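Deviation from plan, reported transparently: uridine-5'-diphosphate complex.
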Amino acid sequence: MRILVTGGAGFIGSHLCKRFIEQGNKVICIDNFITGSKKNIEELLHSLNFRLIERDISIPLYIEEDLDWVFHFASLASPKHYLNYPIKTLKSGLLGTYNCLGLAKEKKAKFFLASTSEVYGDPLIHPQAEEYWGNVSPIGPRSCYDESKRAAEALTYAYMRQHNLDIRVARIFNSYGPNMQADDGRVVSNFIVQALKGKDLTVYGEGNQTRSFCYINDLIEGILKMMEVDYKLPLNLGSSSEFKIIEVANLVLKSTNSNSRIKFLPLPEDDPKRRKPDISKAKEILNWQPGVSLEEGLKKTIEFFEASN
Ligand code: UDP
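Because the crystal trials were delayed, the predicted structure below was used instead.
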């Protein structure tokens, strides 16, 4: 197959590109390296089946080759980045999705949207099932990400309805693993890097807010399975093991044998208090569920950060 992956040098995108290359597909990777990294795709650059186009997906593009799939993963997905670059975030969610949909339509390719648990905002129901419409501030600091991903979903379904485009929409919950950026501000990467450097672990608020963390390999399996089934409604992909942030901090301290201490800092505005996916649909439709425990996944992620220092 010929597969185009936007954000192909990012955390999830780079793992996807690697899998597609290993399977013998031809991959076109698009990335503007605003948060992606060349290091993530270094080993792929030698493959004749891999082509890198350094470019911002919010600018329309023309591709000569036929395409079977278009995966739109380009996004500033970490709160730290989307708070710093709100307009770029909106552009990759809105214009980037629009450009990718146009490309998929032109090539008669299937389209895969990397959506997010943030479409549920600070959820009022728990756990979050796909039917939940969410609790999102349209003007808050996170709105550039949340609302552009919600609009990206709306655009995707408009193309499905109007142009009969074959689509998949994954709502990806917190995920972690090798190829995360050390400084992307995410809780797992922050805690690991801080623990390895002997710095204080920065817990926001009292650390009672929860997240459910999915290891990257599990997530990639879920995404690949979505390609194999003909199911066009959104699917939650994530782990249903819920942890308080303070528990994550303690687990990282234990797993790194670190002497670092915990420092409590103010909770960011609109930070969701609880987040855990209802993954019963993915279990039933994809016969998928995450298998890697947080302890195991952290161990592998710690090894990655140790090796990259
Ligand atoms: N968080 C934290 N310390 C950090 C980074 C994040 O306590 O150094 C908290 C953050 O407030 C949030 C959770 O960890 O409640 C997850 O944050 P992250 O940025 O990883 O992703 P989010 O789920 O908010 O998109």
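The chain has a mean pLDDT of 97. We consider this an acceptable substitute for the interim report.
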